[in-house]
């Protein structure tokens, strides 16, 4: 085998090794990070109770998901698409963006979802339109404040993130979910 062929084989093996190890790159939540995460969880609960957020979720729940929109179709549209931009520029999206921008080093994305896991508003296009089946939605829609057990790259921003989620309630009834992506690097400070 020539030197070039050996080099290419080694390069290929190195690439496969990197792919195999990549899931292990999730970071532990340290004792220094947890108090900061807990503060953000309290903030997420307060934001989820904001009257504008509750009203936006109620309105989407009355309409339901966009007809024909699923995760496969969602992945085909660009973040510049008017449908996507509508989630960012609607009043709830503007409020989420205001909150995120007030803490741009700590928060890198906020997503608001309705009862059927459809998107209501967000600060940037999430990887999926329907979040059902993912713990960040499923735990919070059951009324729990959820925390990702480790930091890992966010699927849509690729920023090392710890996600948290809080239930959106109308009275005592859970009607939606507010997801906040926290920048892991900032949590350790």
SSE layout:
Elements: H1 3-21, E1 27-28, H2 34-48, H3 51-63, H4 71-76, H5 82-89, H6 91-102, E2 107-113, E3 119-122, H7 135-141, E4 146-147, E5 150-153, E6 160-170, E7 173-183, H8 184-187
Antiparallel strand pairs: 1-5, 2-3, 2-7, 4-6, 5-6, 6-7
Helix pairs in contact: 5-6
Walk me through what this model shows:
The protein has 189 residues and is of the alpha+beta class. The protein has one domain: PAS domain (Beta-Lactamase), CATH 3.30.450.20. Helices cover 44% and strands 22% of the residues. The protein is built from eight helices and seven strands. It has helices spanning 3-21, 34-48, 51-63, 71-76, 82-89, 91-102, 135-141, 184-187, and strands spanning 27-28, 107-113, 119-122, 146-147, 150-153, 160-170, 173-183. Strands 1, 2, 3, 4, 5, 6 and 7 form a seven-stranded antiparallel β-sheet that branches. Helix 5 packs across helix 6 (91-102). The longest helix is centred in the N-terminal third of the chain and has 19 residues, at 3-21. The N and C termini lie far apart (51 Å). The model is unreliable at 16-24 (pLDDT under 50).
Short characterization:
The chain is 44% helix and 22% strand.
Helix and strand content put the structural class at alpha+beta
Q: Supply Rg.
A: 19 Å
Termini separation comes to 51 Å
Count helical runs.
8
Average pLDDT, rounded to a whole number, is: 91
| CATH architecture designation | 2-Layer Sandwich
**CATH H-level superfamily title:** PAS domain
Strand content: 15-25%
Q: Helix share of residues?
A: 40-55%
Annotation, overall tally of beta strands: 7
Give the low-confidence spans.
Answer: 16-24
The biggest beta sheet is recorded as:
7 strands, antiparallel
Q: Assign an overall shape.
A: globular
Order of helices and strands: HEHHHHHEEHEEEEH
CATH class: Alpha Beta
Number of domains: 1
Q: Within the CATH hierarchy, at the fold level, what is the topology?
A: Beta-Lactamase
């Amino acid at each position: 085998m020539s030197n070039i062929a050996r080099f290419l084989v080694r390069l290929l093996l190195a690439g496969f090794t990197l792919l195999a190890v990549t899931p292990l790159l999730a970071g532990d939540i340290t004792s220094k990070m947890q108090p900061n995460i807990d503060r953000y969880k309290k903030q997420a609960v307060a934001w989820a109770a904001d009257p504008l957020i509750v009203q936006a979720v109620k309105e989407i729940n009355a309409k339901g998901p966009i007809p024909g929109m699923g995760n496969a179709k969602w992945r085909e549209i660009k973040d510049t698409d008017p449908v996507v931009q509508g989630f960012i520029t609607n009043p709830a999206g503007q409020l989420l963006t205001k909150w995120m921008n007030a803490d741009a080093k700590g928060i890198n994305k906020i997503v608001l979802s309705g009862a059927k896991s459809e998107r209501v508003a967000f600060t940037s296009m999430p990887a999926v339109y329907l979040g059902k089946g993912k713990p960040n939605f499923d735990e919070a829609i059951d009324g729990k404040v959820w925390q990702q057990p480790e930091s890992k790259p966010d699927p849509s921003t690729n920023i090392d993130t710890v996600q948290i989620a809080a239930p959106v309630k109308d009275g005592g009834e859970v009607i939606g979910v507010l997801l906040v992506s926290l920048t892991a690097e900032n949590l350790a400070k």
